[in-house]
Amino acid sequence: HAGPATLTERRSSAQARHLRGEAGLINEDELCRVEIKLALEPGLPTPQNVGTVLFQCMCGLFLNVHTAIYDRSWYGRVLVERVEGFAAPAVWQRAYGEINDFEAQLTRAGYVLHKFWLAIDQDEQLRRFEARKATPHKRFKITEEDWRNRENWELYAAAVEDMIALTSTEAGPWTLVESNSKRFSLVKILRTLADRLEAEL
User: Fold this and answer.
1) In the chain, what percentage of residues exceed pLDDT 90?
2) Which of 67, 89, 164, 182 gives a 20 to 30 Å CA spacing to 32?
C-alpha cells in the first residue's frame, strides 16, 4: 500500500435509502474517467458469515485500483441488520467501534476515506417507486420487500442518526447529501471529493 503521505489509494462510500440514486451517481462518477471498483454489499449474515463482513470488505480493498466507490459497504450491520433483527443488539452496538477501528486502520495505511449519506424524503421515494413500477423495463427492480421496508421508515431514520453520530470521525467523515434532486447530489458529492482530495495533497 501507499504510505500515509501519498494518495495512490482512495476510497469513497455511498450510503442511502432504496431508490435514492447512489447507483446512478456512481455511474456518473465513471464519466470522470477515474478507475473504479464497484463492490456490492456483502450478503446478509448467516451463522457462518455473521462475523466476517468487515473481513470481506477488507479483502475487497486489496485490488489493483486507485479509486473505489462502495455502494453500502460495511454499514449493513448498523442499518438493515439492526432494523430487520438479523443481528443481535449486542452485535450491532459493538459494530460502531469495530467500524471506527477498521476505518482508522485504512487511513493509517494511506487511504483517503469519505462517506456520503444520500437522503430523500418519503414523498420522493414514493414517487420513484411508482415511476419504477410504471416502467416495464425497470419494474423488476422494485419488489414487495421494498414496499414493506417503507413501513420501517422511522426505524431506519433512528438507525441512520445513530450511525452518523457514532461513526463520523476524522478518519472517515460523513457528508449528508440532499438527494431529492439527483443533479444536485452529483454536484455536491464531486465538489466534496475534490475539496477533500485537494486538502490531502
Assistant:
1) 50
2) 164
Q: Which amino acid is at 172?
A: G
pLDDT of residue 31: 37
pLDDT tens digits, one per residue of 25-78: 555 444 333 333 333 344 444 444 444 556 556 655 555 556 777 776 789 999
Over its C-alpha atoms, the chain yields an Rg (Å, rounded) of 17
DSSP 45-95: P-TTTTT-HHHHHHHHHSSS-SEEEEESTT-GGGTHHHHHTSS-HHHHHHH
Predicted confidence at residue 28, as pLDDT, reads 46
Question: Cell 464519466 identifies what position?
Answer: 31
pLDDT tens readout for residues 85-99: 999 999 999 999 999
Residues in the chain: 201
* Angle at which helices 182-200 and 22-30 cross, to 10°: 60
Contact 133, 139 (CB under 8 A): yes
- 49 Cβ neighbours under 8 A, 6+ residues apart: 42, 43, 56
User: Sign of the C-alpha dihedral, residues 41, 74, 128, 187?
Assistant: negative
Strands 67-71 and 10-16, how do they pair?
Answer: parallel
Please state at what angle helix 153-167 crosses helix 89-108, rounded to 10 degrees: 40
Q: Count of alpha carbons within 13 Å of 25, Cβ hemisphere only? A: 29
User: Residue 120 — left, alpha, or beta (φ > 0 → left; ψ -120 to 50 → alpha)?
Assistant: beta
